Structures are given as C-alpha cells and as structure tokens.
Amino acid sequence: MSAPVNTELNPITERGRMAPKEYDAILLASFGGPEGQDDVIPFLRNVTRGRGIPDERLEEVSHHYRAFGGISPINEQNRALKAALEGELAARGIELPVLWGNRNWDPYIPEVLQEAYDAGHRKILTVTTSAYSCYSSCRQYREDLGMALVDSGLDGKLEVDKVRQYFDHPGFVEPFIEGTIAGLAKVRAELTEQNQGGDDKIHILFATHSIPTRDAEAAGNSSDEPREFAEGSAYVAQHLAAASAVMDRVNAESGSETKWSLVYQSRSGAPHVPWLEPDISDAMEELAGQGVRGVVVVPLGFVSDHMEVVWDLDTEAKETAEKLELAFDRVPTPGTHQKFVAGLVDLISERTVANNIAARPAMTPLGPWYDVCRPGCCANFRGEKPTIAGADSTVGSVA
User: Which residues hold Fe-coproporphyrin III (predicted)?
Assistant: First the structure.
C-alpha cells in the first residue's frame, strides 16, 4: 500500500514554479564538519562567525566532536551521497556532473563556485542537505550562495538556482516510513519479551533541530503571500505534516494507533532566548511518568546521521532512555537510501529541460513547496544579504 501523493500544484506553488532550464552542473550543498581534532575549533569559529564567541566557550561546547575524535560524520556521508547521485544520474542517462560544497568547512562553497566557473559551467542547480523551511535550513544557504557570487565577482556570470524544499517528497518520507515500521516492531518485541505491554505502552518521537521561536515564526512567512500554518510556523507545520504522513502508513501497516509527538533537540544559544520545545529528553521523562515503556525515535529533521544524530540522539537521548528504563530504538535517516537518492534526482529532473519530470509529488497538503522562495520568507533578523533562488533575490541570474 502506497501513501497518497499529491501531484497537483496549489495556486501559490504555481506562481512559485520555475520553467525548466538547461543546467550544466549540480551542486550538492551542505553544512560541513570537522575531520580531525585540530579542525574542531576552526570549524566552530566558522559556524558562529559574527557572534563574538571566544574560543574558551567554543571549547566548552566541542565535547561531542571530541568524543568522536574530532570527526563529524557529515563529510563522509556527503561523499557517499555525491557518489550515489552520480550513479543515479548516470543510470538515467543524465549527463550532469555533481559538485560538492559546504557552508562551514572544506570544500567551501565560494571555492567550488569559482572552480565550476573556471571549468566552464554557467548554470548550476543546487540541492541542499536540508529539507525544511526556516532561516538556517533554506535562506542561509541561499545567502551563502549569493554572497559567494558577489564576493568572487561571479554575479552576472554564473547562474545558480536551487531545488524546492523536499520535506514531503516521497523520496524523503518513504525511508522514514520503512524505518519507523521496523523500529516499532523492534520495540514492540522487546516489551513483549519483558511482559511490559504492547503498542499502548509505546510512543513515537519525531525529532528535529530546535530553532529560536522568532525564526520559527518567520519560517514561510512571506511579505506578499501570507499563509496560515500550524503553530504559526512553516517549519513546525512541515514537520507535523511529514510526521502525520509517516504515521498514516505506519498505523495502516501495524493495524494499531500508536501515539506520537514532535520533539526538539540540539538547542544552543543564550538561555534567555526562547527556542522550540519540548526537548526530547524532557519529553521522555514526561512519557515515562505517564506509563510509557518504550520509544521509537525518528530523526525526521535530518537527511543523514551527522553529529546531531549520533551525539544528541544515539548518545544523550539513549542515555536518558536507559536511565528511565525505556526500550529505545532510533530510526535511520535517509542517507543514501535508494528511494532518497532517486527522489533527489527527481527533484533535479523537475527543473531540467532534458529528462524533465513535470509532476511535483508531495505527501502532505502543504506541498509541493515553491521552486522560488517567496519575498521575505524566513527572514534574516541580523540584516538582509544577497540571496539566490527567491522572488526577492538580487543575485544568481545571468543577464
């Protein structure tokens, strides 16, 4: 049984749709991460640049990288994803090279764009390793690409676009459905063996990165086309919609109605600044008090098993579960799952002239999301910067 897929464009998305183009390269853009102990502090300086945070404070928050030898898994995972994309493109006969650039570590986006231009590329389509709408998940990528074009003098010479946010694309959601079904079966079997109950004692926690509530409220909040979102935020609404799509299938497959909720992790910043809640560990403590004996954690906000997954979930959240004597299973992220890789190539094909896919599949009523971000969407409260791929963008096109 397949989940229902919406392939119709809503009126707002129709206006945010771009005509197919003849791109000559794909850019896989990601966050980046350190690859050794000596890289940790320089990497954290990049992440926090402009905030005036001293190295002493950065060292205090570096422990999760230090625990893994100073190596974040994200770069190796991006190498694997790049190779998988190249394989899927080749299998479909799509002759587009895949470039890779990071916002915060080598290979840096500005250098990759310069190398692309020097190699003769003139139209680049970007795929980011971020599925949702908020400042850090979408607009900051568009700003970094825009600033790279301006600072390198490539604006007006190199055209850079970006695929739509894909939080409800089947290629992103289907791997979570598979993983959640398997995770639920595993926790159910563990509780049955311990005579601690069935599905009524299990809770599914969909986990994502917390963000400041101010950023959450600005997510999807366009100045010219206001929309109503659950909890007043596209970021929250997109997660709730994707989780609901997962649970529709999970409950249909399992024949039960397992309870679930959206929780947050990886909070940072000043304590007095409000961020999205509840924290996953706090939620588990509350659930344990209500008689829940097992949890399935679904890292719905993440494309791959990078540091926020292997530390915040596999280490800290798992330790909380052990302390509370909760059965615990963490579902895999999409990573290089065949459906995810194929889905990303489908997103690319939505925008290309050759091998074009006209339909825009979406598994929630919120989608398909815009090809072109709406004016003012996911505002940067620190000040506007040059951006690509938006209705209010000032750079990224070629005259």
Answer: 72, 141
Binding residues: 72, 141, 209, 308
Give the whole-angstrom CA distance, residue 395 versus residue 358: 26
Number of domains forming the structure of the chain: 2
Q: Residues at the annotated binding site for Fe-coproporphyrin III? A: 72, 141
DSSP character for 219? T
179 plus 118 within the same structural domain: no
Q: Rounded to two decimals, what is the model's pTM?
A: 0.94
Cβ of 378: how many Cβ atoms within 10 Å? 26
Q: Which CATH number fits the domain that encloses residue 288?
A: 3.40.50.1400
Q: Are residues 188 and 322 in the same domain?
A: yes
Q: Give the three-state DSSP class for 162.
A: strand
Residues at the annotated binding site for Fe(2+)?
Answer: 209, 308
Q: Please, what are the averages of pLDDT over each run of 10 residues along the chain (399 residues)? A: 44 68 97 96 91 87 93 97 98 97 97 98 98 96 97 96 97 98 96 90 98 95 83 96 98 92 92 95 98 98 96 97 98 98 98 93 94 90 90 84
* Domain membership of residue 201 as a residue range: 170-330
